[in-house]
Amino acid sequence: MNRPLNTLGALAAGALAMYYLDPELGARRRALLADLLRSGLPGERRQAAARSRQARRAYLRATHADPRSDAELRDRIQQRLGRMVSHPGAISVDVDNGVVRLSGGVLAKERDDLLAQVHEMPGVQKLVNAMTAHDNPQEIAARSDPAVSQEVTNR
């Protein structure tokens, strides 16, 4: 009983090898197989697209957050800014119905991490980035502190 099963397996392996190692069409078939493996199965693509559509719709849902929770969320974000960026005073935080808007100046190397951490905070429905990224920390200090701004312009 084992021998016919081995023979059938060997025949299937040979047919598969002939199919993919064919000198004329084998390269195309191997490329198609590689693309399929890299991008996932067609059903997985449809599922991923459906999840993406659901996520987009989540932003369109009306939220019914009360002003107290918005104020609490704003306070939590402002408290954590000191641990997330080097110039927390230069960033303004506004919250309306769970939609967080960050504005002001931030270092370019700190921006992406800041946005990711704020977006993951409980209560954040949507995050709006209105911050200006700077490469030089002195640019942020100059914009947030008028005394420093005068000192920089007097040089």
UniProtKB/TrEMBL annotation:
Domain of life of the source: Bacteria
Originating organism: Ramlibacter montanisoli
InterPro entries: BON_dom
Protein name per its UniProtKB record: BON domain-containing protein
Biased composition (Basic and acidic residues): 63-72
Segments of this protein annotated with the region Disordered: 43-72, 136-155
BON domain boundaries: 69-132
